[in-house]
Amino acid sequence: MSFVTIAYAALFYVATVVFSVGLLNKVLQFASAPAPLKIPTMPAPLTRIGAAGRVTREVVLFESLFRSDKWLWIFAVLFHMGLLLVLLRHARYFLSPVWGVVWDAVVLIQPFGAYAAFAMLAGLLLLLVRRVVLARPRYITNPSDILLLILLLGIALSGIFMTFTVHTDIIALKQFFVSLFTFSFQELPTDFLLLVHLFCVAVLMIVFPFSKLLHVPGVFFSPTRAQCDNAREKRHVAAWAASMDAER
Ligand code: HEM
Ligand code: HEM
User: I need a labelling partner for 84 at 20 to 30 A (CA). Which of 25, 149, 233, 236 fits?
Assistant: First the structure.
């Protein structure tokens, strides 16, 4: 087995462990963090179902961003919707065509996924230009903001070149990834663009639990969005204050 195959197999095992353990750890931390006050942004839904609807609109439509900054909303939607379609299209590298309806959906998405890559690329470039050119966003931009956008640009560009110019051996690639699940290692194709693409993806997985990409699980735990406005009907007592409350 070639050195490249062994190195990438090891890299993806490490990346998978860091990504899943790191993410699980953060989600448990978010879920158990005290919410000492009722602080939903007003006007807020009055019931828990209403609050669930609000979080759903936030995830699907980026509702609060739309209210605050229309240009940033357009850039963010271009990038995220493009990314979503691209990732759905990628399911064919890991699934076998025996998954019934799921497989049919993956097949249906293929042509859209390929062109969604350009929406993703345009979104990333616009987000980067915004951070560099506009004075106010530039003032609050950290190196990690720029590096993350460059990493995603590296993934998008290497992917697009593979799809539209220098193709890779998808069958061999799939065999390599499926073999990682069963520890029966197969050779990874060694074309340059694929190695760049996969290296950037592994780095993305490793930085995910330590970066602002935690906005993905974080949006579901944001008290200003996920709490409902029922302070008049139900007294809200934080866990740490419950014993004091009972003594009174
Ligand atoms: C539940 C899914 C997701 C939601 C609801 C979501 C929502 C958002 C929103 C509202 C922004 C704000 C734009 C801004 O203020 O700069 C944002 C920024 C960003 N998101 Fe997501 N996102 C999701 C998933 C992802 C994923 C999977 C990735 C990448 C792997 C990602 C990468 C980014 C990046 C890099 C930015 C910063 C753009 C910048 O530099 O301005 N997001 N996201
Ligand atoms: C281990 C995971 C991944 C593997 C094995 C993989 C593999 C590939 C391959 C082989 C292509 C070329 C497709 C073709 O020739 O038709 C491609 C394209 C692409 N990849 Fe990935 N990729 C992975 C993860 C990702 C991630 C996480 C992103 C986004 C953050 C991404 C973004 C893209 C884009 C934008 C394209 C071009 C459009 C397309 O064909 O869908 N990839 N990827």
Answer: 25
